[in-house]
Design brief:
With 189 residues, the chain is an alpha+beta fold. It is built from four helices and four strands.
């Protein structure tokens, strides 16, 4: 009788430990995804510092195209990959793909090492119309990562095809998704 009770108790402890380990792993990945999303908010805000015209001194000229990430995202209209800087001299500092530790991946490793994938969508809240009225853009950042190792989507899952879908996982069985929304304002001259 004592052996039966001990066996049942041991099985329960092993089951709890497996659940605890999975919960800790999910929490860690969620924390990394949150840090990645905040990193991309900072990158978009930094990119907006290239967008300073028109202003009261120069009301007829716009340099919105200098803000590469913003110009690419507003032109796309829907969800897209933030790939404006890929191919630059140091693309790993602005990659849309991240490894298991949340580090940017260089373009050569995106297909094979991607664990977290960033997509973004930009929408005008206040179109830039007057020099005294700076433009305002709503930025939605989405970080996607596979639900589990056994559910690995394979190389190349972080692509423009996946990014342009309004919901890349309608059944909620393949990916976790984290969303972050902010506003991006025209930078001051």
């Amino acid at each position: 009788m004592a052996m039966t009770i001990m066996t049942i108790g041991a099985a329960a402890v092993m089951s709890m430990q497996k659940t605890s380990i999975q919960g800790n792993l999910d929490a860690r990945k969620n924390d990394i995804a949150n840090a990645i999303a905040r990193t991309w908010v900072d990158r978009l805000q930094r990119d907006a510092m290239q967008w300073t015209l028109p202003n009261t001194d120069n009301p007829n000229l716009s340099n919105f195209a200098n803000a590469l990430l913003l110009a690419q995202g507003t032109a796309a209209g829907g969800w897209t990959l933030p790939s404006a800087y890929l191919g630059a001299t140091n693309p790993e500092t602005t990659s849309y793909a991240f490894d298991i530790l949340g580090r940017d991946l260089p373009a050569t490793e995106i297909a094979s090492e991607t664990v977290f994938c960033v997509n973004y969508r930009l929408q005008w809240l206040v179109p830039q119309a007057l020099p005294l009225e700076p433009g305002l853009i709503r930025a939605d950042i989405r970080v996607i990562w596979p639900r589990s190792v056994s559910n690995d989507p394979g190389p190349g899952w972080c692509s423009l095809t996946t990014a342009t879908l309004p919901n890349p996982d309608p059944t909620f069985t393949q990916y976790h998704q984290l969303y972050l929304t902010t506003d991006i304002r025209q930078g001051a001259q």
